Amino acid sequence: MKIWVDADACPTVIKEILFKAADRTKTQTTLIANHSIRIPPSPYIQFRQVSSGFDVADDWIVTQVESGDLVITADIPLAAEVIEKKALALNPRGEMYSASNIRQRLNMRDFMDTLRSSGVQTGGPPALSAQDRKAFAGELDRWLAKKARQVR
């Protein structure tokens, strides 16, 4: 099982949590972005730069992800695609997307998009909080622990 990171908009603090976890647990982690990203030297951390363009990084992740893998993304349509492939998706705020909740998230995303396109100011998401970082680290640790049990 691998971790794939939709790294274009992934907060630095989340990447740092992932780097430490990858080395600690020897989990292959690949960051995908359309611009250069610095990663620490590690046999478990890789970076793949893709060309610029709408959903190029997302499409690349979908072609690579396998059942049981974990994708880190705040992109709800990408999360839905990886869930269809029997992978899991975790957003940087610590919410694990699943087959049971992704449809609701897609519907809310589409509703908010409709509001914005009609001129309603919906504002952006709040800044990532310490509680968000803790929730993310907790969900990541649960996935890594489950992965470790399956390997034994």
UniProtKB/TrEMBL annotation:
Going by the entry's taxonomy, the superkingdom of the source organism is recorded as Bacteria
Q: Name one Pfam family in it.
A: DUF188
The protein's name in its UniProt record? UPF0178 protein HER31_13005
The UniProt entry's sequence similarity note says: Belongs to the UPF0178 family.
Query: What organism is the protein native to?
Result: Ferrimonas lipolytica
Q: Which NCBIfam families match?
A: PRK00124.1
